[in-house]
Amino acid sequence: MGEHDLIPITGLGSATLGTKVCAFGVESGYLCGNVVEINIHAGFDGLSKVDLGNHGFVADDLGGPIYTESNIADRNITQALGYVTSFDNTDPNHQFVYYTPLEKVFDGLSIEDCNYALLTYNETNAQEYDQLIAQMEIPPKK
Amino acid sequence: MNNPLKLIFIIFNLLPSVAPNNYSQPLPETELQMAQNVSQIVERDGAIALVGGTRVTEVFSVKGEPQQKELTLSFPAVRKLDGKKGFLVPFSFNSENYLVDGTKIGGNYVLTPAGFFASEGIAYAFLDIYPEF
I need a surface site. Which of A45, B16, B82, B115 has the fewest CB within 10 A? Predict the structure, then answer.
């Protein structure tokens, strides 16, 4: 990823165990890893834990976006997952980042009739991308 | 109205937007993207643009002494009630001063999520962005 690369956010995603996710922090930059635990407590309840290998995040990276990335027609798109909540760099070979799922944030922000939602790139494009993703998920004919 | 294509076009535009789920809302008129390695306010097409992933400085006070903390701006969000756009931002201290590259980007209305406690770690908030961004 070069400087000032922009990746469109097409929607809210979800991750399960083993899902490859990526994250960005202003200090450590762009890091990816696999989800190794979900719905755990690490300061907050309901966090997901990602193994980043031998690269980890630092304090300035807190708050950074965590997302899944797809490549469709030579274009990267992302689905938002959550934000960097904490990290654990105790093991240099398995440095972990914890993220809070965005659903929890939006639930927490919602007060009576005042609700919040993620903004996505563009309705037309998002639908187009969703269709492309759906097509990719259809098994090929034998 | 003698042009059926025009009629179809008008009907299409009157249809309300359907969000993919309760937590996301497409923004047709604005390019809303997430940046990598962005630490400055950038100008695009003559307008100042803020994107997720931007370095943000939170300025707050501890016992009267000004302090600051570097954090990362996260995903863009919208308040459904009035369509106000903003960003999800880390909220670790009681501050309404969020700066990007030395410029205050907003902070008149920072709402922390219910049930989140900063003492347990980093919490989150919705940050109203000034209209010029």
Answer: B16
